[in-house]
C-alpha cells in the first residue's frame, strides 16, 4: 500500500540521515586536535633535521657517512613515532653544495630535487631498518622570484674555503662568496616559502595511512614560481629555501602541536662564546623578538629562531610550541630537559634560564654556532 511504501521511505531516509550525522561526527572527531604543551600521546610533531646532522663535523661528506649518521638517529626517531604522529623534514646545505661542485651548470631547483631524493632515500633506509615505514615526498614550494632575497643572497651552501679559494671560485664560476666565521662559503638566494604544492598529499598520508611516516619538504622544498600569465604553470627558481622556514610553514598548515628543530649544537644561548654565556630553557616569541635573539648569526641560528617564532605565532592553537636542541638530546627536548622551548605562555619577563652548565664549544670551522643546513 502507499502507506507502507511511505513508512519504508521514511525509515530509509532516517537511516541515511543518521549515517550522515555519524560520518560527520566521526570526521569532526578525526580532524579536531587536542593540543598540549606537554606532548600527550598522539600529538602531531614536525621534526626538522639539519643537513649537517648527516655530516658530523670533521667527517667527509660521503654516502657511507650519511648512511651511518642516519642509522645512528633512526632508532630514536622510530621510538618517538610510536607515541607521536611525526612528520620529518631535513636540511640539504652540505649535500646541495657538494652537488653544485660536481655539476656547476645545473640549476638549484634541479640540485634541490636531487638532494631531496638522495637524503630521503638515506633516511628511509635507516628508518626501515629501525622498523618504521616512510614515504619520502618530492615537494615543490612556491616562492616570489621578485623577493629581495635575490638581491642579497644569504643562504650558505657547500663546504668552507680559504680566502684564495673563495676568490678563485667567485671569478671562475661567478659564485657569490661570503665570510662564514674565519672561512668563506658560497651563498645563494633564500626567499621565504609561500605555498607547499604537495600539502594535500602529506595530509592524506597522515589521515589515511597512520603507520607511514612522511618525509616532506626536504631542503626547504624545490623552489618554483607561478607563471603570471598562466598561474597553473610552474617553473624552477635558482634558490635554496631555508628548511626551517619551510618546516614552520609545513607545521602550521598541518595544525601540528609542536615543531622541533634539531641541530648539531644546543638550544638558544645569550652571549654565545663569551664567559657570561647562558642558555634559555623557555622563551616567548615576544622576548626573542624584543632581544633580537640570533640576529648576529643570520646564516645559522638566526633562521632557526625566526622559524620557531613564526610557527608559534602562526599556529591556530594558543598552546603550540617549538623547540631547538641537539639531535642527540631529542628525547630530552620533549620534556624540556635539554634545548630551548619556545611558547607564548612564559611567565615573568618571557624567559626562563637554564641552570649554568658547560657551554658547547664553538665549531672550529666557524665562529657561528649550529650550522645545520
Question: How would you briefly describe this protein structure?
Answer:
By secondary structure, the protein is α/β, with parallel strands linked by helices. The protein is built from 10 helices and 17 strands.
Write the layout of secondary structure elements.
Elements: H1 2-31, E1 44-49, H2 63-83, E2 85-90, H3 93-102, H4 108-129, E3 133-136, E4 140-142, E5 155-161, H5 163-173, E6 176-180, E7 183-188, E8 195-196, H6 199-208, E9 212-215, E10 222-227, E11 230-236, H7 243-253, E12 258-263, E13 269-270, E14 278-283, H8 285-290, H9 301-314, E15 321-326, H10 330-333, E16 340-343, E17 351-353
Parallel strand pairs: 1-2, 1-12, 3-9, 4-10, 12-15, 14-16
Antiparallel strand pairs: 4-8, 5-7, 6-7, 10-11, 13-14, 14-17, 15-16
Describe, in plain words, how this protein is organized in 3D.
The chain has 373 residues and is of the alpha/beta class. 37% of the residues lie in helices and 22% in strands. The protein contains ten helices and 17 strands. The protein has helices at 2-31, 63-83, 93-102, 108-129, 163-173, 199-208, 243-253, 285-290, 301-314, 330-333; strands spanning 44-49, 85-90, 133-136, 140-142, 155-161, 176-180, 183-188, 195-196, 212-215, 222-227, 230-236, 258-263, 269-270, 278-283, 321-326, 340-343, 351-353. Strands 1, 2, 12, 13, 14, 15, 16 and 17 form an eight-stranded mixed sheet that branches. Helix 2 packs across helix 4 (108-129), helix 3 packs across helix 4 (108-129) and helix 7 (243-253) runs parallel beside helix 9 (301-314). The N and C termini lie far apart (76 Å).
